[in-house]
């Protein structure tokens, strides 16, 4: 294992210190906690938090700022943050109108965020949440009951962040979040597994001519292993997983898993555009880059959000002040 680190046990705290130092104009680290919070003054609106295990950078701290998250709580690598860390993030985000939590569907995340919600409500802070479960590749895994939450989480941050900034109530944001969840799907693939620093070896190993479909963001293996294919063939296999009809209007997110060059992501994007055009689908918003990564995994994911309402696209297009959007 070759990593630019000091001690494997210190990677999260040193990463957060470095992030807060470099981006001190936008965010700060909450003293004594693995939390990144925005510097913006509180204005009495709903606060928005998210988080989970580290190793998915720039998620989630990279999306803290005006127009998106109020705070992000960062657990150990691929490990849920503890309830007390989440509770502190809720208190940091609270502006008096309640706090909304975006939770990826992993057992530890769901349990610990819900425990923190109970703690917050005992102190009089209203809290609501949505569980993101956009991964259509695997219905159940070692970490979930049902579908996993993956790159869609970023689009949820963006749309709900705009709702909070515009002054929507906690109840209105909850209704919006539930509606979004029914309209977003993601599926991914990997050319290599991710190496957790404290483990020192990849979560799974592929031969030079192999590819894995349906992988998770914690280096969970997927549903099928095949011989390597061309970009066009990979696009066909992934888009066949989505159910869409001619005339549907979509946003697409092509997300790098951490070690896939932008050159390859753009080649893949070109093939996605061609195939979706052939299918008669309207792509009205596009985004590409490393947003929900898995350490040093080589691979990518494709997310489609069916834009049922024009306001969703407007929310995606609205300007924000964050590190990574």
UniProtKB/TrEMBL annotation:
Keyword Transmembrane helix: no
Record-annotated DhaK domain positions: 7-325
Pfam families from the UniProt entry: Dak1
UniProtKB keywords: Kinase, Transferase
GO molecular function, one term: kinase activity
UniProt xrefs under PROSITE patterns: DHAK (PS51481)
InterPro entries: DhaK_1 (IPR012736), DhaK_dom (IPR004006), Dihydroxyacetone_Kinase (IPR050861)
Superkingdom as given in the UniProt entry: Bacteria
4Fe-4S listed as a keyword: no
NCBIfam families attached to this UniProt entry: dhaK1
Protein name: Dihydroxyacetone kinase subunit DhaK
Organism for this UniProt entry: Streptococcus sobrinus
Lineage: Bacteria, Bacillati, Bacillota, Bacilli, Lactobacillales
